[in-house]
Amino acid sequence: MASKERLYEVWMLYCTKRDPDYLKLWLEIFISSYERCLDVDFEKPPSRPEEVPPVLTLLPDNILQVLRHQLLQCVQKASDGLEPEQQNLALLLLKFLIIICRNLSNVEEIGTCSYINHIITMTTLYIQQLKSKTKEKEMADQSQAEEFVRHALAFCESLYDPYRNWRHRTCGEQLGTVERSRQKYKAAPLTVEFVPFFYQCFQESEHLKESLKCCLLHLFGAIVAGDQEEL
Length: 231
Known about the structure:
This protein is mostly helical. 62% of the residues lie in helices and 0% in strands. The protein contains twelve helices and no strands. The chain has helices spanning 4-17, 20-33, 63-78, 84-101, 107-112, 115-131, 135-139, 143-160, 165-170, 177-181, 194-201, 210-225. Helix 2 (20-33) packs across helix 4 (84-101), helix 3 (63-78) runs parallel beside helix 6 (115-131) and helix 8 (143-160) runs parallel beside helix 12. The radius of gyration is 18 Å and the shape is globular. The termini are far apart.
């Protein structure tokens, strides 16, 4: 695992110079330290990370504000098309959020911030792009858009089914009443933007990849299994 000293050093460089390359480097180091937490494949059993990510209070003081600002900038530019570097930064921010939510004590705070709404806005744009049937789309590389969408849906799972109850169920592991009663942390409250986003994904979706539709259906199951009642 990357040393805490190295993360601190890079963060101090970013705070001093305000160079976004240092922020990107900090995210890359952090993410590489908790790579096992990024199990975004709904078809696989939930993994058990060897080391739980830190609680929010152990992160740099203003990290959430900095990342929120960076994510908002990506959202504002997304409708005009993000440059590859901006797409990469947006994906790094998303991966960071998924990892942080694998410490279940962080779920409630992350779920009530504006991150999820920004992520839904960007995911909506990417899905519209992936649903379109144009010559430009056929010639363009859609892999970055698809990767962002898959990670965005996994982020939603982290918020709304933090104990991965749905994945356990699809793998044949039925959790009993006792096991469920031991689940200390609650799922984040479902944001009002989610329901219209979810239904919009399936409208005129004949050109959307079946694998992405399958991820969306798994997410629906995860939200129900996480005891959400709004869908």
